[in-house]
Each structure stands twice: as structure tokens, then as C-alpha cells.
Automatic annotation (TrEMBL):
CDD domains cross-referenced by the UniProt entry: AdoMet_MTases (cd02440)
Keyword flag Methyltransferase: yes
Single GO biological process annotation from the record: regulation of DNA-templated transcription
Name of the protein in question: RNA methyltransferase
Protein species of origin: Coraliomargarita sinensis
Length: 431
């Protein structure tokens, strides 16, 4: 990873070159797209950063289609930097009118002189000239997965789960650039002009032209607002904690669900949050310090939920049973592909079943901390039945699950709800 930092610190690096280096880093290092974006130096700001981010994410969002178009023109696998140039230019061809295409080719060929060897420059020159027509030729009916830039297996899997029409709506949804929404817990009477209301109470759309540093960041200083998608409200609404309760938030980092629950509890009571030791915990703690400032008792415990036990909680003078337990499980993320476009590149067919197995184990572990009569919410940002209702049904057939009943559920399928996908299930402990 030092090499990309080094290349980007050489000035001046324009947004296009930086985007190519980020795409190369994405495919060379096994990092997520937001981790790759974090490699941009701190002084890479303003319009340059925004253009770089848009080209990088656009290249990933439309990359399967670009790849399908240039693959037949390759005799051998190109170096990742060469492929990165093709993916960035492929996105530009897609997003700009055809009269601009010759300029895009010229620009890419010129910039490539700094990035690749002479042989590769010649190769790029030849392929880039043919690429717009090859992209144009991809047919939405006979090559649906390529056209909507998704892996074949995922499109086949969804077609079986949801049918072809719904799958096409989902693919179209995933290819759009996501809206950013903010949840404001106590909205002012007069909204700033860069926010517009949504159909979901307390959620506001943020204008794309907003100045994040000067207009949005001040709203996030206290605990009165949080950047989140409306789908995130479903799980906390099902758990419905109230003032004075003890709540255990499992798989809690960076604390979005805790935020909702703290407000539902009017900052009175206790939230104990658990997540794996690692890079996500500092943000959880930072968010918790904002919540405790308003009177809530809140503690973050760094621990694997599968290892969490009475002794670990007692050692910290924390309750061992809770009125409410939230389990926001790790998942395949298939409900949030519009927002996290690189999920399409990372996900493998076996991941869905592997997630489901881990989710069942986590749910069994979580159930041990619920008081008699208490509430347990199992939540994911997946739209897969295998990771949602099937996990809950399996759980109810286990020994631990036999002490619970399924009380309610909320499922969001993005093409129906108009926001991210999610599944949330409320289980009540009956004895
Ligand atoms: C969906 S994210 C949680 C989002 C969070 N609840 C929020 O609302 O901001 C899933 C989380 O599960 C955590 N995680 C995954 N496996 C875990 C485990 N075995 N024990 C504890 N946390 C785990 C990850 O570190 C990640 O933070």
C-alpha cells in the first residue's frame, strides 16, 4: 500500500490519474472501496477529490460492462494499471455524450504515457478507439448481467429468488448514484436549503452540491444527527427500547443503531455495545462519547460476540441479561450495492451460505443475553432470504431458539421501498 501513497504524493496528480491509481490499488490489494479512497492524501481535496471519487466509483459501478466489452480484444491478461485505465475510460464513455468520446480517447492515451510502457500505450490506443462501440453493442436482454454490470451468478441467483422483472428493477437501482441522507432526531422548523424532506420521518436528502465540511459537518458535531439510510430505522423501530432500559447492541460499530436507540430511550438507561477489536471501534467510542454527554450510560466492549460471556460482562460491572438485544449481523450486503458498488466485485456465490451460517451462530449467542420477556432483534442489510427469514427459522428450531417466538418483521427490497435493502426480525423471549 505504500506504493500508491507514494505515487499520489508526487505533485501535481490530477483527478483522472489518481482515479486510475485507485482502481489499480482496488484490484491489486484486497481492500474495500472506502479503504482505497482513504489512501488519498489529506491535501487531495475539493473538486479534485470529488472528481477522482466519482471516476473511481463509476469505474467500479460500470466495470463489468466495460470489461465484457474489452475482453474479446485482449490476447493476454493486461497489467492491473492497464485494466484500470480501460475501466476509468469505459465509465467516461458511458457517462458522457458520444461527441465527447474522441476527446476521452485522446486524453486517456496522453495520460497513459506517464503510467504504462510504450507497448501498452499502443495497445491502449487501439482498444480505446473500439471500446465505445463495443460497450454500445451489449444488449440488455441477451446480456443482462453485462449490460447492468453485475456478475452473472448474482443475476441468476436473484432471478430465481425474485423473478426477472424485479431483478431488472434491482439492477437498475444498483446502477444509480446513491442519494445521501441524514437523520435529524429533532428537526428544526426551518430546514437548511441543502436538505429536503423524504417520505421517512426524520430523514432528509442532502443536496449533491453541498459543502460537506462547512454545511453538513457542523450538524454532526453533537448527537442530534447521523448520516444514514432510511432502511436503518427498521431494526431500531422493531426493538423499540424506552427510557431506563438496559440494551445490548451486538455488532455495533460504528454505532448507527445505538444512535437511534439512545434517542428512543431519551438518553436515559444503558447501552452496552460489542464489536470485534479493530479499526471500527474508535469511531464507535467517539460516537458513544457524544451519547454519554446527554446522560445515557454507554460502554463499548471489544470482543467477538461468539466469545462474549457472563464473566466478561461481570468483570466490567455490566448486566448479563438485557431488556433488549440488537444483533446487526455482518452479511453479504446485497441490499446496499447501490451505496457500496464494490460489493459486486467482492461477493462469491459461497459467501451467502457462509454468512448465513455465521449469522445463525451469532443469533444463538445473542439470544443468551435476553431477559425473560425481553426483545431480540436480528437485522441485516442483505436482501437474501437465506440470510434473513431462513436464519430466523433455523434459529427457532434450535434449543436456544425454542425459548423465543417471532413477533414481527420488516423487509426492505430497494425496488419497492426506494431506499437500501434490509431485513429485521423481532423475537420475544417467552421463558
Ligand atoms: C452491519 S455492521 C454493524 C453496523 C452497526 N450496527 C451500525 O448500525 O452502525 C456489522 C458489524 O459486525 C461486526 N462483527 C462481525 N463479526 C463479529 C463478531 N463475531 N463479533 C462481534 N462483531 C462482529 C463488524 O466488525 C461490523 O462492525
Amino acid at each position: 500500500m505504500r506504493s500508491i501513497k507514494f505515487s499520489l504524493s508526487k505533485k501535481p496528480v490530477n483527478a483522472w490519474d489518481a482515479a486510475v491509481l485507485l482502481v489499480e490499488a482496488y484490484f491489486s490489494a484486497k481492500l474495500k472501496s472506502d479503504q482505497v479512497l482513504d489512501l488519498l492524501p489529506n491535501d487531495f481535496i475539493g473538486q479534485r477529490r470529488a472528481s477522482c471519487q466519482s471516476l473511481f466509483l463509476g469505474a467500479l459501478r460500470h466495470g463489468h460492462r466495460s470489461r465484457a466489452a474489452f475482453k474479446p480484444m485482449l490476447r493476454k491478461t493486461p497489467r492491473p494499471i492497464v485494466e484500470a485505465i480501460l475501466l476509468v475510460a469505459g465509465y467516461e464513455f458511458y457517462s458522457e455524450p458520444s461527441e465527447r468520446h474522441p476527446k476521452i480517447v485522446h486524453h486517456a492515451v496522453e495520460r497513459s504515457k506517464k503510467l504504462v510502457n510504450r507497448f501498452e500505450q499502443g495497445f491502449l490506443n487501439a482498444v480505446l478507439r473500439k471500446l465505445p462501440a463495443a460497450i454500445e453493442k451489449i444488449d440488455p436482454d441477451s446480456s443482462t448481467a453485462d449490460f447492468y454490470s453485475h456478475p452473472d451468478w448474482l443475476v441468476n441467483h436473484w432471478s430465481q429468488s425474485f423473478g426477472e422483472d424485479a431483478t431488472r428493477e434491482l439492477l437498475e437501482w444498483n446502477q444509480q448514484i446513491p442519494e445521501q441522507t441524514i437523520r435529524i432526531y429533532d428537526p428544526p422548523k426551518r430546514l437548511p436549503e441543502f436538505l429536503t424532506p423524504t417520505p421517512w420521518d426524520g430523514f432528509y436528502r442532502i443536496s449533491r452540491s453541498v459543502d460537506w465540511q462547512h454545511q453538513v459537518a457542523p450538524l454532526l458535531d453533537g448527537s442530534a444527527a447521523y448520516i444514514k439510510d432510511p432502511s436503518t430505522r427498521l431494526a431500531s423501530a422493531l426493538l423499540g427500547p424506552s427510557s431506563g432500559m438496559d440494551v445490548l447492541d451486538l455488532c455495533a460499530a460504528p454505532g448507527g443503531k445505538s444512535y437511534d436507540m439512545a434517542h428512543q430511550m431519551h438518553h436515559s438507561g444503558r447501552i452496552v455495545a460489542v464489536d470485534l477489536p479493530g479499526s471500527r471501534v474508535p469511531r464507535l467510542r467517539e460516537n458513544f462519547s457524544k451519547l454519554t454527554a446527554l446522560g445515557l450510560e454507554a460502554e463499548a466492549v471489544e470482543c467477538d460476540v461468539l466469545q462474549l460471556n457472563k464473566a466478561i460482562l461481570e468483570e466490567r460491572n455490566l448486566p448479563t441479561r438485557y431488556d433488549g438485544v440488537m444483533l446487526d449481523a455482518p452479511c453479504s450486503n446485497t441490499g446496499v450495492i447501490q451505496r457500496r458498488t464494490d460489493v459486486k466485485w467482492r461477493l462469491r456465490p459461497k459467501d451467502i451460505q457462509e454468512c448465513a451460517q455465521l449469522q445463525l451462530e451469532l443469533l444463538i449467542a445473542a439470544s443468551g443475553f435476553v431477559k425473560d420477556g425481553g426483545r431480540l432483534v436480528y437485522s441485516t442489510c442483505s436482501i437474501e432470504e437465506e440470510e434473513n427469514r431462513s436464519v430466523v427459522d433455523h434459529f427457532l428450531h434450535t434449543e436456544a431458539g425454542s425459548q423465543f417466538r417471532l413477533e414481527d418483521q420488516s423487509i426492505s427490497l430497494p425496488w419497492e421501498t426506494g431506499h437500501d435493502g434490509a431485513g429485521a426480525f423481532l423475537l420475544i423471549r417467552t421463558n
